[in-house]
Specification:
- By secondary structure, the protein is α/β, with parallel strands linked by helices.
- It has 3 domains: 248 residues, NADH:ubiquinone oxidoreductase-like, 20kDa subunit (Rossmann fold, 3-Layer(aba) Sandwich); 109 residues, Cytochrome-c3 hydrogenase, C-terminal domain (Cytochrome-c3 Hydrogenase, Chain A, domain 2, Irregular), CATH 4.10.480; 34 residues, no CATH class.
- Helices cover 31% and strands 9% of the residues.
- A 5-stranded parallel β-sheet has the order 2-1-3-6-7, sandwiched between helices. It has a two-stranded antiparallel ribbon with strand order 4-5.
- Helix 2 packs across helix 9.
- The protein is elongated, with a radius of gyration of 28 Å.
- The chain starts with a helix and ends in a 14-residue tail after the last helix.
- The N terminus and C terminus are likely disordered.
- It binds iron/sulfur cluster.
- Iron/sulfur cluster binds next to helix 11.
Length: 413
């Protein structure tokens, strides 16, 4: 990272008021003024984890990550990586004032190291809750001028900490795109972090919001991205590639379908009729062909589990259109009618041809010469004359342009 880039990046110079002068009934907006940020080789970096409208599933997913694990980031044992000091409302040992204190230090620019801001859950419109004197989601309590207390909304913490953060990361579909709390009938005005901070938001290091969607997300997608960003902040690696929606491109470029363990069934035109069947699940509601996610190749935890791997359909949980554009779940996507019927037509022919080839590849050439398979496990049918002729032509094509002779691969048997 060129030094001049580092020295010219600026952040908010005006810490938010610590008292309750920020009216509870105003939707906080991100600040635009900035001041210099000093970054260099870091030994430590703080991570402030803020929970909005969330079920804590993202936290559970993150602590299940294995490559790298949260533990290895916290212990600072990943080579080249600064030690992560995590301030998490559920995992923290501290409570009360001791837990909230570093949040204030970060807001006031008095932390001993840079910080990243992580949001789990969507950001509600606190003006709605304030009308009845309540709040939707909060962390910590402040004393009003009149001596009464008020919880500090998560939205307000985002507003206070986002301008000074080296990077801002939204984890999970609620934090990225609004998710379930922002679905039709949304009573809270919930929205994702990018919607809340707006197009012009940039972190102190000049980065827009980084989005790692999923409900719940793959924990490794999160820790791997955090690790890549930390290496970038260290000056040890390039800025990872993000797509136009701020998703790590190498993780979300392809669809679920591309790497699905059932994609072969789709291609050969065989489809499950019931949950629990082994074939492709598109006709019982799978949206995998049009959903960007790597769950089928990465698995849920430690390369194990994951929707289609374990019999579940894809309901599009990583997508900005989730859940409304994918509902009602368990109804087949209308677009699949064309593609599955096409697969059925072509697949029926291709499947038969492949079975014929497979039957011959399952034989030693010696067995062809002797016309007998000496297996004690069962009677193996000899191929019909038609199939033998078809396969002869197939092998001729295979050997064309080479010195190979038909059946030469095992002629020494
Ligand atoms: Fe594609 Fe879904 Fe079928 Fe897998 S189960 S092959 S993702 S349509």
């Amino acid at each position: 990272m060129p030094e001049e880039t580092i020295s010219t990046v600026t952040i908010s110079s005006e810490p938010s008021a610590r008292s309750s002068t920020t009216a509870n009934n105003q939707q906080p907006q991100p600040q635009s003024e900035r001041k210099p940020l000093n970054l260099g080789p870091l030994t430590e970096i703080h991570a402030f984890w803020i929970a909005g409208m969330s079920c804590d599933g993202c936290s559970i997913a993150a602590v299940g990550a294995t490559n790298p694990s949260v533990e290895s980031l916290l212990l600072g044992i990943v080579p080249g990586m600064p030690k992560l000091i995590l301030h998490h409302p559920v995992l923290a040992v501290e409570a009360g004032d001791a837990f909230v204190h570093p949040f204030y230090l970060a807001e006031e620019g008095k932390l001993d190291a840079p910080y990243v801001l992580i949001l789990e859950g969507s950001i509600p419109d606190e003006r709605i809750a304030a009308k009845t004197g309540g709040y939707w989601s909060a962390c910590g309590v402040e004393v009003r001028e009149d001596g009464t207390h008020r919880p500090i909304p998560s939205a307000e913490w985002v507003k206070r900490l986002a301008p000074g953060a080296a990077a801002v990361i939204a984890i999970g579909t609620c934090a990225t795109w609004g998710g379930v709390p922002a679905a039709a009938g949304n009573a809270t005005g919930a929205m994702g972090l990018m919607d809340f901070l707006g197009r012009d938001y940039r972190s102190a290091f000049g980065l827009p919001v980084i989005n790692i969607p999923g409900c719940s997300p793959v924990g490794d997608n999160f820790t791997e991205t955090v690790a890549a960003i930390l290496l970038f902040l260290q000056g040890l690696g390039p800025l990872p590639e993000f797509d136009e929606l701020g998703r790590p491109a190498w993780l979300f470029r392809e669809t679920v379908h591309t790497h699905c363990v059932r994609a072969g069934f789709y291609e050969e035109g065989t489809f499950a009729e019931n949950y629990g069947d082994k074939e492709c699940l598109v006709e019982v509601g799978c949206w995998g062909p049009v959903v960007q996610c790597n769950i089928t190749s990465r698995g849920a935890i430690n390369h194990m589990g994951g929707c289609m791997n374990t019999g579940g359909i894809c309901i599009g949980c990583t997508m900005p259109g989730f859940p409304d554009r994918f509902a009602p779940f368990y109804k087949r996507p209308p677009g699949s009618l064309l593609s599955t019927n096409t697969s059925r037509l072509t697949g029926a022919l291709i499947r038969r041809l492949r079975r014929t080839t497979l039957a011959f590849q399952n034989r030693e050439t010696r067995w062809d010469r002797e016309g007998n398979v000496p297996s004690g496990w069962g009677a193996v049918q000899e191929p019909s004359k038609l199939k033998a002729a078809m396969h002869f032509l197939y092998e001729k094509m295979q050997a064309r342009g080479t010195r190979a002779k038909i059946g030469s691969k095992s002629s020494n048997n």
